[in-house]
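Dig into what follows:
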Amino acid sequence: MVLASPRQRPVSSQASPALPVGALTERIRSLPPVQQQEEMGRLVRTEVARVLGLSDPGKVQPNRPLQEAGLDSLMAVELRDRLGVLVEAKLPATLAFDHPTPAAITRHLLGLVEPAPLPSVAPVAPDAPIALVAAGCRFPGGVTGLDELWHLLECGADVIHPIPAERFSWEQWYDPDPSVPGRSYAREGGFVGDVAGFDAAFFGISPREAQSVDPQERLLLEATWQAIENAGWDARQLEGSATGVYIGLCGTDYQHRVMSDPARIDAWSLLGTTHSTVAGRLSYWLGLRGPNLPVDTACSSSLVALHLACQSLREGECNAAFVGGVNLLLEPSGFVYFSKVQALSPTGRCHTFSEEADGYVRAEGCAVVLLKRLADAQRDGDPILAVIRGSAVNQDGKSNGFTAPSGPAQEAVLRTALARAGISAAEVA
């Protein structure tokens, strides 16, 4: 038995039936592949323009959802009827719903003219190496790419500063005494600049909807586009591909903000802030058909997402995967909470492995990496920034306190990852 939600459907085991041999079908089949695409696309845009009442088919944008262009349910049926006459076949009434853009309808009709064989899914070796072919990122210190990140690490820059006023006024939330209710004794952190700057139209998001889109989603969209560009890929060729999306997410600051006033809740409030839709937007925007899931395992969320993506690539569930993590500090509640458990450093600095260690410092950022099986990346001539040979996940069970880490469990997960990678700890630089 295979169960799937409407957004995560199992692959059908039956190919679409071919169209009957009519005049159009014969003419399309006689053309070279590129011309087949051009001719069918021209015919589809012409019919879309007629249904929408446009005098110029050139105004029909191939990749714009027809619903956004004004197509309603009656128009969708009319478009189905017109295209059915054109290709001399009975098409489903859900045609414009299942294939929401002119480009998608074109691909569907071409698939009926010349049915493609079902894709084969062949898992590779369970220890097959995975290539990291590109990345995009946003981090404190003005970091907007890998070169800037490397420079920041190389020069040892300090990017911890007082909480920016545009987040919230830390003065009214600050008190050096951790016992004072509703106050934080920490007032510094690492913050990404210009989280409000966002080209919503570029990502197909309306101005009104953009107001309810979590800034974490905005950063993920930007970092994903950056990764695509850095890989040298054409984003249009990803549409319909078995590309997965695995995103580490645990912050809900923006959702708390937009849902705190019931009078301000609208149709976009949850669609723009729940973790499932934050991750789901990436697949929707690019038209990806691989697995899509947010992962919340607190501090390890993005690492677990990476582990799951590598498994999916080895199992053949996807041929490429976007893997990311994002966290923004938008509300004072998190600072107050971690002050109450005295987890934060009052000095605003981490003193790792030192007797002066007195807590951690909150910071934020976003990164998205693009993964492929190493053999596939080498075959396709992709850039290879790193190779993942092994990973592992566990839980420490009953340790010395619910939030306290367990040394033996951490050692065990490291040993398992090293064993799967086929290297010793001494080989790790």
Q: What stands out?
A: The two ends are 46 Å apart (CA to CA). The first strand starts at residue 130 and ends at 138. Confidence is low (pLDDT under 50) at residues 1-7, 9-21. The CA atoms of residues 52 and 71 lie 7 Å apart.
